[in-house]
Amino acid sequence: MNALYAFIAVSALIAVGWIGGTEGSTRPVFAVLVPGVAILLFLAGLAFRVVRWAALPVPFRIPTTAGQQRSLPWIKASRLDNPSTTLGVIGRMALEILLFRSLFRNTRAQLRRGPRLLHGENKYLWLGALAFHWSFLVIFLRHLRFFMEPVPGFANALASVDGFFQVGVPPLYVTDLVVLAALGYLLARRLKDAQVRYFSLFTDYFALWLLIGLAGSGVLMRYFTRQDVVAIKQLAMGLVTFSPVVPASVSALFFVHLFLLSALLAYFPFSKLVHMAGVFLTPTRNLANNNRMKRHVNPWDYPVKVHTYEEWEDEFRDKLKAAGLPLERA
Amino acid sequence: MAEHTPAPEQLIQVDYRPPAKSWMDARVEFRKGTFCYSAGAKSLAYLDFPNPREWQPFDQDWKLPPDWQAIILKGMKERLDRFRSFRLFMDICVRCGACADKCHFYLGSGDPKNMPVVRAELLRSVYRRYFTTAGRLFGRLAGARDLTEDVLKEWFYYFYQCTECRRCSVFCPYGIDTAEVTMIGRELLNLVGCNINWVMEPAANCFRTGNHLGVQPHGFKDSIEFAVDELEELTGIRVDAPINRKGAEILFVVPSADYFGTPHYFTLLGYLMLFHEIGLDYTFSAFASEGGNFGLFASHELIKRLNAKIYAEAKRLGVKWILGGECGHMWRVLHQYMDTMNGPADFLEPPVSPTTGTRFDNAASTKMVHICEFTADLIRHGKLKLDPSRNDHWNVTFHDSCNPVRAMGLLEEPRYIIRSVCRTFHEMPENTIREQTFCCGSGSGLGTDENLEMRLRGGFPRANAVKHVHDQHGVNLLACICAIDKATLPPLLEYWVPGVEVAGIHELVGNALVMAGERPRTTDLRGDPLHVPQKEELAHA
After folding, report:
1. Does residue B398 come out as left (phi exceeding 0), alpha (psi in the -120 to 50 range) or beta?
2. Are residues B178 and B282 in the same domain?
């Protein structure tokens, strides 16, 4: 049900984008105002979230240690899965953020007759997630050619690597295929796997449909329709240079693409998508396991009621005496 | 086994297909065998915890304070502002489900709310409803729901069906730690007086007498002396085991089960033999007679209150540093909380082994060393005379206890010791050991008899891995370094894989340790006859 509602919601967004972009009177709103506000919401919202998280105290040092600690000199410590130094933490975080280290550990449990509980390898989720995130990043960087003049060299270089296979006209970008395949897998997994479906919320499907709509409309524009790329670039440059223009020759399909992007940007900081920023701040990963080497200070520490030795001795004085245990006050 | 407990063949008929009904509006049924009884009013009152009263989870009326919702929401707000972990873990979960089948309670019960992601959603849904704009505006569509009494009861059921083992946290791409969520969830429940007796009574005991079992100083002394007597019978050597002795170099702190439980007790014998043999200048303390800390299963404040006695006692006795025995959650507290909560321990000295001269730089600030680090160092330096053949009646595997692994990283030290004192050792399958180890299913205060069915379910993944090495290699002993393991694994294994015993590592050390002047040993520390090689075996050798 959640999947259907989310599909309807994204379809409605598509319709709004299409109509808004077609109607002459609303075109400037959808070409300039909506994306402008969306970018503002994205930047301000994300900054707000990050600043609020970062400002919160980390009272205790609670890394999840996933390897051998640094202890005796002759025991080899696991520097990345259980880092005890800042450098190690940077390595651990880099592995986590760039390669999804923890997700790579994923297993799938199966209960066989016997009973035998097996925990088999299962890298599909890791592969799907990695494929999506990396191709999305490449696509985002490729798009800089619409927002920058002159086009930065790396954007062109990335585009030529991405279009390496030189299939079709215009040449097919591998990442376009990969991003759609990965999103398709992630969606299918949510729908097919009964366990994942059980806890999937509207927002989980909404994010997926939105990204599929965004990537799909982009693919339609590039490979299946003729677009006035010069006009599109004018519009995009206008947005980032704060001198908006609304060329007449930009298609309704482009407005769908732009509106979905705006929706994504505006939605991003207020949804689970903030994991992009949050992952950097997670205290179980970004702290060194040097707990016993260096004292960690809790900024809101306060005195608590304890049972002191003196109180204890008073309470058990007779028994201590009878047992012949030494006393502070005889 | 309790009479209600089904047979293993029945218990393992687990259906992993979740119900069609949404998780957001289910109600909890408190079925016998799957939950823990409420905390006695006496314990709560003693510890100044709110709302002490007589009630049980299966009662309709939980006798909550009239403004319980306001109390919980205020408590949530405070904690959202105090713990980055809490707010972040509420915000960034994407529900990828990598954690789902990593939880031993889910694997053993098939209850979908035992998937760590859903356990956290139980709290997250309330967070969204009261603390996020989307949740306030869109309600269920945004995954938000009202805080009702049914929701509170669900919290109680599932936050006391999590052993805070952190296995899911190893697999989470954002490191979301259900232990942290459960700890905060239990803190919130505590605010309105919803706690379990197996946590609060030991905590109250510990606050009063110095240990969870409520053993008073003379009882403590008796237990230790009993062990000394028994050792004399076993070895012919009378060891010294000082208590509350000022001026000792080292304060030794163990979990109280070590001097009152079986098989823990044999581990205690091992410690005493070891310390005698190297001539360690140490003392026990009857005041700090507990290293474990059931505060960890109630609230951060209670951790601090119970833990305070260790440094206080180290200071009073004037020791140089502290050595800690075999225990799981005890070491999470000592490693990750003690120094922050009750330090700095600037009155102590960085630990140095008096026998080998090794400086434990990894404990330079906290000044507390794990007995396995200490013993591994002794063996490495050849300071112990060992006869591993005296453990030949054991075919050993090692159970990594959750906290020493996932909140510390103590992996190789215990293995090194085992390999030095035993001749037959087999690892369990790799996805069930080290950082992926499975909990005993009874940690974090859930090891009580009324909860037995759930414990057997939660312990199933661990027991099943033991069964694998039992069937494949004839393993008959599960070694471990956790007091809760030692208390709860024996009934678990008896149920799932009969024929495998449980022992602490220092029991095995004690068996193998050749003491100067000892009389020839015919039995192990348990009094069981040592394995005498048969003629055939000798012929093959």
Report:
1. beta
2. no
